[in-house]
Structures are given as structure tokens and as C-alpha cells.
Amino acid sequence: MALLRLENVTKRFGGLIAVNNLSLEIQEGEAIGIVGPNGSGKTTLFNVISGVFFPEEGRVIYEGKDITRMPSYKRAPLGLGRTFQIPRPFGSASVRENVATGAMFGTLAGKVSVDDCLEIADRYIQLVGLEEHESKEALTLTPVEKKMMEIARALAMHPKLLLMDEAMAGMHPKDIDKTVAFLKKIKEEEGISIVAMVEHIMRAVVGFAERVMVIHQGKKLVDAPTKEALEDQRVVDVYFGHAAGEGNAKG
Amino acid sequence: MIFELLAGNLTHGLLLGGVYGVATMGLSLIFGVINVVNVGHGQFIMVGAFVTLILFTALGLSPVIAIPVALIIGMALGFLFFYTVMRKLIKAPELASLLATFAVGILLEELAKLIFGADFRGYYWDVGKIILPFTTIPMSKLYAFIGSIAIALFLYFWFSKTRSGTAVRSVIEDSEGARVCGVNVDWIYALSFAIGIGITVMSGVLLTMFIPVGINPYMGGAYTLKAFVIAVLGGLTSPYGAFFAGLIFGLVENGAYTLFALIPGVAPFSLTVSLAFWMLFFLLLVKPTGLLGKK
Amino acid sequence: MKKNIVKYYPLIPVLAVYLIMFLIGFFMPGMWQMVALLAFYCALGQSWNIFMGMTGYVDFGYVTFIALGTYGMSLGITYFSQFEWLGMGIIVIGLILAMFLAALAALLEAAIALRLRGAYFAIACIGINEGLRYFIEGAKIWGGSEGLIFFGALTQSLGRETVNQLTTFWADFSVFVIAALAAFLNMHYMRSKIGYALTAVREDEDAAKVMGVNTTKYKTLAFLTSGLLGAAVGAMAWGLKLGHVYPGDVFVIHYTIECIVVVLLGGAGTLLGPVVGGLIYGLSKYWLAIIMPGFQLLIFAPIIIIIIVAFPEGVIGVLKQRVKRTALEKYIV
Predict the structure, then answer these.
(1) Ranges of H-type helices in A4-158
(2) What is the pTM of this model?
(3) pLDDT, averaged across chain C
(4) Which ranges of chain A have pLDDT less than 70?
(5) Residue A251 forms part of a structural domain
(6) Which residues pair with A35 in a beta bridge?
(7) Partners for A (CB, 8 Å, 3+ pairs)?
């Protein structure tokens, strides 16, 4: 049974079709990269999966259960974790408290005490290398540190499926390699499926994803093992054509 | 009989509604531009009422003259208030601006009390009346209504036909975008705030025609609350929406009063006031962007 | 276990202040009235802060709860004092009614108004308050605008001596208890899951939802707690103490503003803030009423403005920054 299955999902905003009749399957323990040019509907796709928006058509099935219209806060305890394209830290709380909040309301909700969560937080903070900033207010972090904190916060939720929305954008190549390495390690150790949405950072896609999905104008263009997908001529046309034209613009 | 009464009350309601509309346009303008709810709004209406009273009783000047005087005083107060207090609070948490505007309202009330005392006062501007088959309308109320339409039209032209008005609209839509396009957003903030307060003080002049003995330092609070209801009805950020919502509110208020008065054993006046708030509550529930609001 | 107690250390200064206030009032002749007034402001600030400080939502209509608490007590005494066998039980009934009315209002308001944010929420709360007040007056329920006057009924039922003790001592004493309870609950919320959830709500409500926080549940919990405590203050300090209630006296937004000023002076979202704010506000109000009767508001208004513009963090907000990384840190929150 697939961990997550989208069946013919369509999401519109007024006249604009952001996600168009899209279906996909994610198996347990997979590492998937989703790529596509700006405005191709990737963030909307994540929002549909995490319940920020409900789709007009189609179904979202998680662990065999229809969650299409389930409010987002009920999805996190089922194991759906995510990070945001533009980090959204709880600014006045410390880094430690931010990450602990993830542990508290994720899949462990109800099973752990506040103190346990703070200990869990310490572990993931160390993993992403933010020990020194542990007691800082989250809003004082640099953008990259905020991204790392969000990854720690999402991991602390102990998710089964982690959606990462351009989590490595703006990072130094060295940090990307480091992040990819620990994500791989965590994925193996904890059996998480990770879907990372990466736009321009091929280094991350190649290093991390086993399978790549290319989204274009709300539709799935290609869904294949990484190497194969990146050699596909359509991908080269759509994705690299755009990327080259747009330089390093972020969507 | 009841229909005559209703027709009469609705006529008065419409005239008062125009004044309500103008009295709310400033609130909507300020909320639209700087995203601040002026909780001391009604106290500026009170300032306008006192300006009229003083000009009329002490200097013998007609309320017609009070209108431009009120605008100037209001804009001066608006600039003063903006540059001393509001400018620093635009980016601050909501609590700060809500409380600051409330405090300014209290300050105005207490200053008015210090200067004029807490008594209810009024004046009588005798310019004749019109006798209709179902009611009699003092000309002063009709002039107030005409005045309110004129002010609304002026604001409309400023908004749609002038450079600064266009800039204000662009700031309401998207202040960052406007800034990028070279609009001096900080000046637009100050100007809209001053104009918002100016209109509000002017509406106080018009309002005096409807409250023969109701001028008092503490009269403002009730109008703040009515203005909230009207502003929400009109879409909160839209000054025109506010004007039309004011007309609707005036009609509903007087219509409901007439009907409540038929129920034995209740206090129709209080019930009408409470109706306004239930309306507000219901509106926020069903359509938080307002009845006449966009989305 | 020790660790858990350490977490509650910030309660020490709060409770110490309350104890000192009580002792001063109890043992120094002529001080009780003033101390009771200070406790009243501390209790209200502490109660209001539980919701506002933790969620960032500004409830301008908070006085609704204080007013409904007053009405609960008044209705209880008015309608049950005829049953003499109830004795002191009528006060318990009054308190239960106060809690019931406030809970009803809080849940209704939470279901409807808490879906709104920012200015809309503030306006909706004012609307509910005014709507209720004029509805009571207009529909002439609960005595309409003439209110309920039950001091006589209370005296008849419990005897002059008991009522005298109740109104001059026990009503005020209970405000101290409520203030301490509010401080404890606030501390407890801060240190538990609830506090983490509400911080997330305050900082980014949509992100909080995606993180698994049932935002409605936690907001409602804080709103209800805050409302019930306010109602308890109303029931004791207004209802029982004064022996009468008029809608025009209790549904007055100015009292919400007093709560806000208390919290803001001390520092929003802090535990000790409302205590310090309550003392500063209560003392200056008391003092101004003596030296310049009738001019308190004229003096307060500019002070409020100056505080908001120049010291938005309040006394404790500033102090908290100062004591960071010192031994005092764990006592001041």
C-alpha cells in the first residue's frame, strides 16, 4: 500500500488552475525530488497534501485513509510534516522551543511530556548544527539558520512523510551536501519518506532523490528514477530551459 | 397611520444616514491606508460638534462656515496625531495602535470637559422647514444631507481624479508595490490620516443638525460604535462602501425603531441600538469582508 | 520532581507581592480599601493577560465577562435569597451562575468571533458587549436599565453583621484568591503544552495548524479561562460587594481599557507584569483621585500614549531583558 496517493487532484484559484488533474504515489521510505519552474504548482501541491487548501476535485489518500478534507492540524499527528518555502518560525520563541513544539504536536502528540519534547528538540538541534543558537529567539536567526531550524522542527514531529519546500535554497553548496547527508541518514534510521521540492539546486536533487517528478503548469510531466528523469528531453526543455532563462529567481 | 409614521421615520433616517456615511468614511480611509482601527473615532466627531457650537453661539457664524473650519482643524489634528503618535505604531502590534487611538479619544473627551464642562448643549439653526404629507423636515437636516453628499463626492473626485488620490488607492491595494513604484508612502500615510480625521471632524458639523441638545464631551463613543458597524457593512477599507452603508444604516435604524416602538413592554431605543450590534456580529460571521466589500 | 518545581519559581515574586499587599491591608488600619483596589486591578490584569498575552488577540469586549459575572451573582442573590435555608449557599449559587453565564458567552464568542483576526476580532468583541448591554436594557430582562438591587434582600437573608463582613472583607479577600489563581493558571499554561501551542498561534497561526496545533481548541481554552476569572472578579468585587448592578455601569469598555493599561504598563505576556502594572495603575489612580479629583483620565491618557510609543514592552518586559543570564532569570517571567 502506498503511503500517500493523490488521485486526479485539481486545485483552482479563480480562473487559474494551479494543480491540474494530478495523480501520484509515494511509497514508504522513498526519497523523491519534485522539480519544476516557478509557478508550476509545486507549493500548491504541498498545500493540498498538508491540508492548507482543499482540492476542488480528486482525492488525497494517506495510509489508505481518505484525508482530502481533513483539517491540517489533524494531519500532522498522522505523520505529515513539512517545512515552508519562506521559513515560518515562531519568532518570539527560542530555537529550542520551536523545535520542541514540533515534537509536541507531531506523531508523538499525547505520548510525550513537555520535558521529553525539549530533549527530543536537543537531539535534532544538534543534528542540524544549531546547538550554539539553542536559546536564541528564532527571529534573530539568519535565513539559512531558520531553514535548518525548520528542518529540525519538522523532523522532531517524527513524521512518516516529510514535505520540504525548497528547504535548501540559498544554502552554501557545502551545507547542501551536509544537509543531504543527514537527511539520507535520518531517512534510513527512522524510515521517513521525504519529498523535497527543489527548484534549481541540481546538486541536492542528484545527491538526494531516488525518484524525480517534474511538474509543469500544474501537471505531472515526468515521473521516473532520478537519472532517467534528468535525461528526459521534455525535462531539459521545460525545466532547464526556464531555469536558464530565469537565472536564480525563486518562486 | 403606521405607514405614515414609517415613511416619516425612514425619510429622517435617510437624511441622517448620509451624515453617518460621511462620519464613517474617515474610519474606512484610515483603516484602508494604514491598517489601524481608530478606536477614538467618535471623539473627533465630538470635536466637530463643538466647533460648530462655538462658532454659532459665540461668534454667530452659520454652520456652513463651520464646515471648512472643521476640515482645517481636523486635518491639523490629524497631522499632529499622526506625526507624534501613529507614525511609530504602523508596524507595531495591533494592541498598540488600538490603545493609542483610544487614549487619544479619552484625551479629547477630557480636554473638552475641561474647557466646556460636561453639560449637554445645543443650538438652533432656523432656516425654515419643508412640510411633506407624512412628516415635517427642518431645512437644516436637508442641508446636512446635501452637505454629506457634497463631501462624499469631493472625496470621490480626490480619490479618482487627482494624483495624490490615486497614490492613496495604490497604497490601499499594496503599500509595498506602491513604494516600489515611487509613491512616497510615508507622506500618503500622513495625508490620508489627516484627511480621514478632517472628514470625521466635518461630519461632526453635519451631525449637530440632528441632535438639537446632544452636544456633550462624551457623545463620541456611541458614534465610534455605529461607525464600526457601518464600516464593516461597507467593507471596512472602502470609503464609498462606507457612505452607502451609512445610508442603509440610517434607514435600518429608524425603520427598526418605528417597529420596535409597537412592541409593548420594551425600550425601543435601546433595542434599536442593540440591533445594530447584532447586525454587526451577524455580518462579521457571514461575510467578514463586509456586505459591500470586494471579495 | 525538583525540575518541575523550578519551573514554577516565577510564581514566587507574584505570590509574595500579593501576600505583602494582604498583610499591609489586614494589619495597617485604614489601608484595606486601597489594597483591595490594587488587588482588583492586579486580578483583572492577570486574567486578561492569560488570553491576550498568550494569543496576541486583543479582546476589547473583555468587560462583558466581568459584567456577566456581576449579573450571575446578582441574579443568584436576587432570586434565591427568599429561601432562607440556603444561607450562605446563595453566594455559591451566585458564583455558579456567574461562571455559567461567562462560560456560555465565552464559548459562543469563541465559536464565532475567534475565527476573525486582528481588528475584526476587536470590533466583534466590542459589538457583542454593546449588543448585550442594550439588549438587556431594550428587552427589559434582568431588570432592564433599572438593574437589580439586592442589598436589602441579602441583608434580610443573612443578617446585617454577616453582610457587613462579606462586603467589607470577604469580597475583597476573594479577589486576592482569584488573582493568585490567575497567576497560577497563567504559569501552568506557560509551562505546559498549552503555552507552546498558544505561542505558535500568536506567532503564525497558519503554520501552527500545519504543525498539528488545534488552534481553535487552545485559543478557546485560553479565552474561556480568561473569561471565567474575569467573571469571578465581577461576581465578588462588583456583585457581592456593591449589592446592585446596572447594565450601564458594568458593560463599560473603559474597564477593558483599564485591564489593558495594567497589562501594558507591566508588560504584555509576562507573569509578573500585570502585578506591577496593577500596583502602578491602582496607586496612581488612587492618588490622583485624592489630589486632583476628576482629572485622572486627563492625566492618564497622555501617559498611556507615551508608554505605547516609548516603552511598549512594559516594566517587566524591560526587566526581563536586564536579568537575562543572571541568577534572577528563573524568577522573572
Answers:
(1) 42-50, 72-75, 95-105, 114-128, 143-156
(2) 0.88
(3) 90
(4) 199-201, 238-251
(5) no
(6) A214
(7) C
For residue C46, CA distances in Å to A95, A166, B190, C270, C274 come to: 27, 43, 36, 9, 5
- Tens of pLDDT, residue by residue over B218-271, are 999 889 888 988 988 888 778 888 999 999 999 999 999 988 888 888 888 888
How many whole angstroms separate alpha carbon B44 and alpha carbon B204?
A: 7
CA angle C171, C177, C179 (to 5 degrees): 105
Residues 54-93 of A with CB under 8 A from C: 71-77, 82, 84, 88-93
In this structure, are strands A31-35 and A211-216 parallel, antiparallel, or unpaired? parallel
Per the structure, the complete domain to which residue A130 belongs is given by 4-246
Q: Which domain holds residue C13?
A: 2-331
Is C64 within 8 Å of C130 (Cβ atoms)? no
Say if A161 falls within a structural domain: yes
Question: How confident is the model over B62-72, as a mean pLDDT?
Answer: 93
CB contact under 8 A, C211 and A153: yes
DSSP string of A142-164, one letter each residue: -HHHHHHHHHHHHHHT--SEEEE
Which residue in chain B has the smallest CA separation from C124?
B281
Give the tens place of pLDDT for each residue, A166-211.
888 778 888 888 888 888 888 888 878 877 777 666 777 888 888 8
Q: What is the dihedral of CA C145, C148, C151, C154, to 10 degrees?
A: 180
- Cβ count near A50 (within 10 Å): 22
pLDDT band at B72 (very low <50, low <70, confident <90, very high): very high
- Domain extent listing, chain B: 2-286
- C-alpha to C-alpha distance for B27 and B19, rounded to whole angstroms: 14
The CATH code that applies to domain B2-286 is: 1.10.3470
> Which chains sit next to B, with 3 or more Cβ pairs under 8 A?
C
For residues B46 and B55, what is the distance between their CA atoms, to the nearest angstrom? 14
CB-based contact A104:A117 (threshold 8 Å): yes
Helix C32-55 crosses helix C253-266 at what angle (to 10 degrees)? 80
Name the residue among B195, B218, B221 with its Cα closest to residue B273. B221
Chain C residues interacting with chain A (CB cutoff of 8 angstroms): 3, 191-193, 196-197, 199-200, 202-204, 206-215
- Per the domain annotation, does A32 fall within a domain? yes
- In the chain, the amino acid numbered C107 is L
Strand-by-strand arrangement of the A65-66 sheet: A16-26, A4-13, A57-62, A65-66
CA B213 to chain C, closest CA, distance in angstroms equals 21
The nearest CA of chain B is from the CA of C185 a distance in Å of: 23
Q: How far apart are CA A65 and CA A46, in angstroms?
A: 18
Q: What gap in Å lies between CA B55 and CA C296, rounded to an integer?
A: 30
Interchain CB contact of A115 with C (< 8 Å)? yes
